[in-house]
Amino acid sequence: MKCVMQMLRNCLAKRRLCQKRLVTKDGHCNIEYGNVRYSNFFAYMLDFWTTFVEIQWRFVFVFFVASFTLSWFMFGLLWYWIARSNGDLAWQQPSANHNVCVLNLYGMTTAFLFSLETQTTVGYGGLDITPHCPSAIALLIIQTLIGAIINCFWCGVVMTKISLPKKRVKTIAFSKMAVICQNRGVICLQIRVANLRKSLLIGSQIYGKLLRTTITPEGETIILDQVSVDFMVDVGKDNLFFVCPLTLYHVIDKTSPFFEMSVETLNQQEFELVVFLDGTAESTSSSCQVRTSYLPQEIMWGYKFLPVISRSKDGRYRVDFSNFDKVEPTVTANSPYHYQCPTNGFDNPLFVVISNDSSLSNKM
């Protein structure tokens, strides 16, 4: 029973953290739009290509089936109307020497089947168009062109959705936690990122934004105020050689938004650190962006990441992803610029009191 209650509390805690985020751990923006005007909604219809590319797959499947079925039915009605106008239908009792527009088209069902066979370029040999009706020839050309346009549109939508850069970012992993520790004499906030594919991200750049609510000196409350947070590796912050997991760090100096925080006050803060990684996929040459976020509860002060790169006996480099999210405690000062001095003095047995008056009298 205790285990079930503990699991329930953990689930509720994770849910509360997800609700507090602007950017989820997998990069989705937790935001909703309200009171959108119909004119703005109409703008989505004008940009229908982007709308179809961004909608979910289940809606793509529904629109895919509906577009073909509806086009077959609409052209079936037109074929039925042409046959009816020419007197080809069975209930019109055409004569034996009557010139029909479409052979073996006797009703709405056969008209729908002929429309389907025409648009899908499938001919079973039972329904054939004759050269006696110019309107039927024109309709055949129009349906063939429209069917080709529909095929090209949906092939483009499917191929674009499959090759979206969003799928590439699924193979970019950030560490679940961030750490604050000492690195080469300075206190740094560190995160770890890894590329799970062997293909590189060309021109990779890393940066961050600290989101928090601030109050200006004029008394104005700014929600989601953004402060830039620079991340880098030992070689800089641009054009990362992303062939193995990298540990990115942000130096906590006087210009850092984390400068006024300490190990005691970190969890009392309300902010969200959003980290961005931009790059170009080597295999598809498409730009992509990976995002994740860290709340104060996900930043561990006084810990460092375990190493993940080792070298085998045959000289090859090996990456151990089992240590990717693991950390270990380390000795870290509270802050590189804040020193905790004792308020009470202490006795020094070698301290000698010198009287200023006696020294002056001797000089006189």
Automatic annotation (TrEMBL):
Signal peptide: none annotated. GO terms for biological process: nervous system development; potassium ion import across plasma membrane; regulation of monoatomic ion transmembrane transport. It catalyses: K(+)(in) = K(+)(out). Its main location: membrane. Belongs to the inward rectifier-type potassium channel (TC 1.A.2.1) family. It holds the Pfam family IRK_C. One of its GO terms (cellular component) is monoatomic ion channel complex. Residues 172-332 form the Inward rectifier potassium channel C-terminal domain. The record marks 151 as: Role in the control of polyamine-mediated channel gating and in the blocking by intracellular magnesium. The lineage of its organism: Eukaryota, Metazoa, Chordata, Craniata, Vertebrata. It is a multi-pass membrane protein. It is found in: Cell membrane; Membrane. Keywords: Cell membrane, Ion channel, Ion transport, Membrane, Potassium, Potassium transport, Transmembrane, Transmembrane helix, Transport, Voltage-gated channel. Residues 23-165 form the Potassium channel inwardly rectifying transmembrane domain. This is ATP-sensitive inward rectifier potassium channel 1. SUPFAM superfamilies: E set domains, Voltage-gated potassium channels. The chain crosses the membrane at residues 59-82, 136-160. It comes from the Eukaryota. GO terms for molecular function: ATP-activated inward rectifier potassium channel activity.
